[in-house]
């Protein structure tokens, strides 16, 4: 069952019943208690080395609740996920779907009120601008966590072909799912459909999870010093007769999260799934490396006169433009350009924007690539072509023309960012909080789903051998696995961005050679397809 959490009620009666115990303890804790008694009407701040008994002074601090005249301690969360977007929800679903982790008490902190709603999106509606291209590896993950069946009941579009070329007309590459014996290369799904499907899967599970519709404002962590450890031991020895006090002492080993509505919750593990500008990453003091591309991505939904089943991408002097099928006669545009150009294209009339898109996807900036005698010679080399690579003999095709813009045009700045650590203390990062990439290959969200899948798997493995959720050695195992997958992809995408941002004769020839190699060398083409589909760890011949 999914629970939507609200503010806890005051427990004045609980404090009254504990008055005698507090008086007996007053001599040993008077410094802390007296300071807190001066003002206990608002949220109280607890510093890293603070005595946990001071938590008794506030219902928001100690997490007690009263039901039917019986007072008890509300259980701290095992995992608190900050961010209820696609990756955060996917992690919650993954934890809910595994026998070893479904018992965990999981909270999702996100102010988005839509997380408490459940509905299917009408397939007949015009698709939104925000979409993701999910790989077969991601689809397999969604099936494992019970979310793909909900995607299938809503709008989505598989594609089995892809064509990539640049504006010089010197080369192109066509890819086909049949080249690797598959039915499709990927599937384009609206982000809201992915989120809704994950949420429905989470609602249907019988695991413990709570959505807290608010924002994180601060985090504090248990002290690491020997003095703090000794103090914790002393406090525990004094209070062996009190079950509640035992639990309060336990709180000092947990991360404390203060929320914007005044709540204070405790958790063994905090997961930052709150995007590229992650507050969790900032509060945990995790440093990053990265740079801005001085580019923006313009996105929108467009309409054709016929249905589109192919993904198209053309590299232009200003950046790549992609045309992705989203179902029926609709496609999604992702067009990279300078920030000034993105503002200009957002302000264009619809007719002018349609003309600009067709110009960019067709004959604009340069001619269509043409097969040459060299291409025909390469095609006939016995060591080049391999069985099943039918696309090596496919000629260049012109993308379908756009006839209308049917959604709002939006733009977002592009950058690369990578966190130095994915795990630090009791904090672990997933998705864009750990890494942000250029969208030219549509791999960003797939890397995030890979994070969610791996973290859930590593947590389950740790629990199977009795490890603690916040065991840094356990969390570093997740970090090492994901860095090995994410860094090569990030480096490749950054390299593509830099290589195609230069308009220089020799560089253009090298790009043309790369296109021709990918088009005609069957083993290379198969390796590229398998890597892009998420079914191969390294991009070349692994």
Automatic annotation (TrEMBL):
Domain (FAD-binding): residue spans on this chain: 77-359, 407-485
EC number of this enzyme: 1.14.15.45, 1.14.15.46
Cellular compartment(s): Mitochondrion inner membrane
A GO molecular function held by the record: 4-hydroxy-3-all-trans-polyprenylbenzoate oxygenase activity
Cofactor: FAD
One GO term of the biological process aspect: xanthophyll biosynthetic process
Catalysed conversion reaction: a 4-hydroxy-3-(all-trans-polyprenyl)benzoate + 2 reduced [2Fe-2S]-[ferredoxin] + O2 + 2 H(+) = a 3,4-dihydroxy-5-(all-trans-polyprenyl)benzoate + 2 oxidized [2Fe-2S]-[ferredoxin] + H2O; a 2-methoxy-6-(all-trans-polyprenyl)phenol + 2 reduced [2Fe-2S]-[ferredoxin] + O2 + 2 H(+) = a 2-methoxy-6-(all-trans-polyprenyl)benzene-1,4-diol + 2 oxidized [2Fe-2S]-[ferredoxin] + H2O
Pathway involvement of the protein, from the record: Cofactor biosynthesis; ubiquinone biosynthesis
GO annotations of cellular component type: extrinsic component of mitochondrial inner membrane
Lineage top rank: taxon: Eukaryota
Principal place of residence: mitochondrion
Keyword Glycosyltransferase: no
The keyword ATP-binding is annotated on this UniProt entry: no
Family: Belongs to the UbiH/COQ6 family.
Assembly mode: Component of a multi-subunit COQ enzyme complex.
Role description: FAD-dependent monooxygenase required for two non-consecutive steps during ubiquinone biosynthesis. Required for the C5-ring hydroxylation during ubiquinone biosynthesis by catalyzing the hydroxylation of 4-hydroxy-3-(all-trans-polyprenyl)benzoic acid to 3,4-dihydroxy-5-(all-trans-polyprenyl)benzoic acid. Also acts downstream of coq4, for the C1-hydroxylation during ubiquinone biosynthesis by catalyzing the hydroxylation of 2-methoxy-6-(all-trans-polyprenyl)phenol to 2-methoxy-6-(all-trans-polyprenyl)benzene-1,4-diol.
NCBIfam families assigned: COQ6, Ubi-OHases
Name recorded for this polypeptide: Ubiquinone biosynthesis monooxygenase COQ6, mitochondrial
Source species taxonomy: Eukaryota, Viridiplantae, Streptophyta, Embryophyta, Tracheophyta
């Amino acid at each position: 069952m999914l629970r939507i959490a609200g503010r806890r009620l005051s427990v004045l009666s609980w404090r009254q019943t504990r008055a005698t115990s507090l008086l007996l303890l007053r001599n040993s804790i008077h410094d802390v208690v007296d300071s807190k008694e001066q003002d206990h009407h608002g949220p109280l701040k607890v510093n890293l080395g603070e005595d946990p008994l001071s938590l008794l002074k506030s219902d928001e601090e100690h997490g007690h609740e009263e039901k039917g005249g019986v007072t008890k301690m509300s259980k701290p969360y095992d995992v608190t996920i900050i961010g209820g977007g696609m990756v955060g929800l996917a992690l919650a679903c993954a934890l809910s779907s595994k026998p070893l982790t479904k018992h965990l008490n999981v909270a999702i902190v996100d102010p988005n009120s839509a997380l408490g709603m459940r509905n299917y999106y009408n397939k007949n509606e015009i698709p939104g601008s925000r979409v993701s291209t999910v790989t077969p590896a991601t689809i397999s993950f969604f099936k494992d966590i019970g979310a793909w069946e909900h995607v299938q009941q809503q709008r989505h579009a598989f594609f089995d072909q892809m064509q990539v070329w640049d504006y010089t007309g010197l080369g192109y590459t066509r890819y086909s799912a049949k080249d690797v014996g598959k039915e499709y290369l990927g599937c384009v799904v609206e982000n809201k459909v992915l989120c809704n499907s994950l949420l429905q899967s989470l609602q249907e599970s019988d695991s413990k999870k709570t959505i807290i519709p608010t924002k994180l404002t601060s985090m504090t962590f248990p002290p690491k010093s020997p003095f703090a450890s000794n103090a914790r031991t002393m406090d525990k020895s004094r209070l062996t007769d009190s079950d509640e006090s035992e639990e309060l002492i336990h709180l000092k080993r947990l991360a404390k999260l203060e929320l914007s509505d005044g709540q204070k919750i405790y958790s063994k593990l905090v997961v930052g799934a709150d995007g590229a500008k992650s507050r969790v990453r900032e509060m945990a003091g995790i440093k990053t490396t990265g740079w801005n591309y001085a580019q923006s991505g313009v996105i929108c939904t467009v309409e054709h006169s016929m249905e589109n089943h192919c993904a198209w991408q053309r590299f232009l002097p200003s950046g790549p433009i992609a045309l992705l099928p989203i179902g029926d006669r609709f496609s999604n545009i992702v067009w990279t350009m300078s920030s000034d150009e993105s503002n200009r294209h957002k302000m264009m009339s619809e007719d002018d924007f349609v003309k600009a898109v067709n110009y960019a996807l067709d004959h604009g900036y340069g001619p269509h690539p043409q097969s040459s005698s060299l291409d025909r010679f390469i095609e006939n080399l016995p060591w080049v072509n391999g069985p099943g690579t039918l696309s090596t003999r496919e000629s260049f095709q012109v993308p379908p023309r756009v006839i209308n813009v049917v959604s709002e045009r939006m733009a977002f700045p592009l950058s690369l960012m990578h966190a130095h650590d994915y795990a630090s203390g009791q904090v672990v990062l997933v998705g864009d909080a750990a890494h942000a990439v250029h969208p030219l290959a549509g791999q960003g969200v797939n890397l995030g789903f890979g994070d969610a899948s791996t973290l859930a798997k590593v947590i389950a493995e740790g629990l199977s051998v009795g490890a603690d959720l916040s065991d840094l050695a356990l969390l570093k195992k997740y970090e090492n696995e994901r860095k090995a997958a994410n860094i090569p992809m990030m480096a490749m995408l950054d390299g593509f961005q830099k290589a195609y941002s230069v308009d220089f004769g020799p560089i253009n020839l090298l790009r043309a050679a790369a296109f021709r190699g990918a088009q005609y060398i069957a083993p290379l083409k198969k390796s590229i397809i398998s890597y892009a589909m998420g079914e191969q760890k390294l991009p070349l011949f692994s």
